[in-house]
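DM from R.C. (forwarded with permission)

"hey, sorry to bug you on a friday — could you get me a structure for this? deadline for the figure draft is monday and I only need the backbone to look sensible"
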Amino acid sequence: MYDYIKGILAGKTNSVKGTFVTVETSGVGYFLEVTTRDFNEISDGELKIYTVLLHREDKMSLCGFLHKEDRDIFNILTSVSGVGSKMALTLLDEFESSELIGFVIEGNYKEITRAKGVGPKLAQKIIIELKDKLMNYQTKEPIKITSISSSKLDDRAVEDAQMVLVSLGYERSEIQDAISKAVALLKDKATAEEILKESLKILSI
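My reply, with the result:
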C-alpha cells in the first residue's frame, strides 16, 4: 500500500514495546516501528523511510526502514513460518542485511543464533527457507562482468550475489552496474557477502 514516506521527524519513542518514530507529511503523522539501529541513526529534519503495512485481525501498524534492502529482507524474513515482525526486527538489529544474507548463503545457522530468542532449530529453519527464497533464480542467465579482470572474479560468488539482488527486486541493468563497480573496488576473488555488501551500498545512493 505504501512504498515509502517522506516527511519531517515529529517524534521518537523508546519503550518496552519497541522503538518508534512519528513522521509528519501533509499534516498527517505516521507512527512507525523501526529497528534500534535506525532509531539511533534518525535525527531531526526531513527523512525518507521505506514502509511495510502489517495487517492483523486486531490491528494495523507500520514498520519503517531507512534502507530499502532492510525493508525487502524484512518482508522475506516474515514469510518464514515462525518468524513474526518482532523477530524479523530483532534479526535486522543484530545483523546488517548483507551479513544475514551471507550466513544464509553459507548455511551458517550458528551465527544466526546470536540474535536474541533465536535457537538452533529456528536458525536452521530460517537458513533453509530463506535460501530457497533468495536463491530461486538459478535458471536466469548470469550477468557478464566484462569490464573487470578475470583474476578478480569468483564466478560463483558473482552469481550468488546476482540471484539475491534479483530476488530483492532490482533491475538487471542496476545489478550489472552495481556488481561491476563493487567487484572493481574489492579484493581479488571477493565472497558473495562482500560483493552484496558493496553492491547494496552502491544501489542505495
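R.C.: lifesaver. Strands lie at 4-15, 18-25, 28-34, 46-55, 60-65.
me: no worries. The first strand starts at residue 4 and ends at 15.
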